[in-house]
Design brief:
By secondary structure, the protein is an all-alpha fold. The chain contains 4 helices and no strands.
């Protein structure tokens, strides 16, 4: 039961992360108010790192910034290691 809840949570947070990167890219193109970088990184840190990484690649967004280029894959690696250790 708890594992099912965790899987649903991870799916939803990754969809949200992907969407946030897409929204921020559109806002950047339109010169509108942007989603703070801290929030984009935070959504990756709370479990949305795969969605964030996919969003970065799909939307070509934040791929030049070192803290995203290195940080998001590093967060994903740590989360995958934690997932493996906890199983």
């Amino acid at each position: 039961m708890l594992e099912n809840i965790l899987v649903v949570y991870l799916v939803l947070v990754n969809i949200a992360a992907f969407g946030m990167y897409g929204m921020d890219k559109q806002k950047a193109i339109r010169k509108q108010w942007r989603i703070p970088e801290a929030q984009l990184l935070a959504v990756a840190a709370i479990g949305g790192s795969a969605g964030a990484l996919l969003g970065m690649q799909f939307f070509h967004h934040k791929t030049r910034k070192w803290k995203f280029r290195l940080g998001v894959p590093l967060i994903l690696a740590v989360q995958l290691i934690m997932w493996r250790v906890l199983q």
